Amino acid sequence: MSGGSAEVKRGDAIPASVLFVCNLNAIRSPIAEALLKKSHGARIFIDSAGVSPAEDADPFAAEVLREAGVDDAPRTPKSIGELDDVTSFDVIVALTPEAREKVEALTRSSATDVEYWEVADPLAAPTGGNRERRLDAYRALRDELAKLLERRFGRAGAATG
Asked: Is 137 helix (H, G, I), strand (E, B) or coil?
């Protein structure tokens, strides 16, 4: 298990399945899920969930994904408790401290690899209610996740372990 700021394990073999977990499953984990599906969805099973999911998908998350050419808009958030067995995933990427704590507790006696990537919460960015500033915070998150995903899972179509 890794800790610290967005540690990624460069060079690891590409897993068969990846789960992204954050608090609400409305912003961070669905963006990571959508970006990885776009690049590796043909060879990796990818899902996302939240510790305490929001009621609705976040429209700003969908908008910044569309800007990046990802048309598959995030769906209604779901709870990690709705998944049949989180230990069936090869890798779980926790994107918040609360998600890390939850998935580590659920996978304590399994071989599931848990990684913690500390990424910014766009809702915590000072936007003053300005739509464009809010979108900029979401874009920064999207771009940060895209870099972390490429570093961890490689580029789409690249030959990897």
From this structure: helix
Q: Tell me the whole-structure pTM to 2 decimals.
A: 0.89
- What the block records as the tokens of 148 is 């972390």
Sheet holding 91-94, edge to edge: 45-50, 17-22, 91-94, 113-116
Q: Name which of 136, 148, 137, 161 is nearest 20 in CA terms.
A: 148
Percent of the chain with pLDDT over 90: 77
Residues 95 and 24: beta-carbon distance below 8 Å: no
71-94 tens-digit pLDDT: 877 789 999 999 999 999 999 999
Rounded Cα gap, residues 103 and 122, in angstroms: 22
> How far is it, in rounded angstroms, from Cα 84 to Cα 158?
31
- Residues forming beta bridges with residue 113, ordered by sequence position: 91
Taking the CA atoms of residue 139, residue 125, residue 72 and residue 5 in that order, the dihedral angle to the nearest 10 degrees is 80
Q: What is the pLDDT of residues 5-64, one digit of tens each?
A: 444 455 567 899 999 999 999 999 999 999 999 999 999 999 999 999 999 999 999 999
8 A C-beta contact, residue 120 and residue 126:
no
